[in-house]
Design goal:
- The protein has 5 helices and 9 strands.
- The strands form 2 sheets. A 7-stranded antiparallel beta sheet has the order 1-9-8-4-5-6-7, with helices on one face. Strands 2-3 form a two-stranded parallel sheet.
- Strand 8 and strand 9 form a beta hairpin.
- The N and C termini lie far apart (about 55 Å).
Length: about 210
Amino acid sequence: MAVKSFIVGLCLAFAVATNAFADIEFLIPKRGPFMATGAKTSQPIGHFKFCQSRPDECAVASPLKRRAQVTDAGWAAIREINTSVNDRIEPVTDDELYGQDEFWAYPTNAGDCEDYVLLKRKELLSRGFAEADLLITVVRRYDGTGHAVLTVSTSEGDFILDNLEPTVKPWSQTPYHYLKRQSATHTGRWVEIENCPDDIPVSSIQK
């Protein structure tokens, strides 16, 4: 009887462990190297306000083109800027910094996730990257909160610059539900991301 109980206990422990590993595997869905984008969708309210104050930055049209082939120097710049901005900027909410929600701005020494993205994008543009390859992207974290990251679109795939992660990673290796991002053909327009069919509707996300 003791042996049987021991075996049953092992089976239960194995089942719990198996379920735990299955849950972990579920957190990062199987994805290809590129995001699949779909229809035009709503612009985040913070980006809309940002565009009102900086209309020239939100009116850049780009023709459809092949994805950029990034050189070794380009990858070095991407990694350098991601690390530098993450180190220089203190994470602070808009409410703490500006006394209001969803205020997107270029940070000087503090800001929230969208501000990190804006500054990384600006510094990469100054290094010669194109607007069409640097796309502000809205995701949902697994605690249900909204978050913003920068997608760098390359011939090797879509890569993510994130203030919550020290390294630049392929989007397929990040634990997020991807909702929408800037259009590659117009800086003031946004498109849906179709790779995660179980995402909540993008129209309900405000961050």
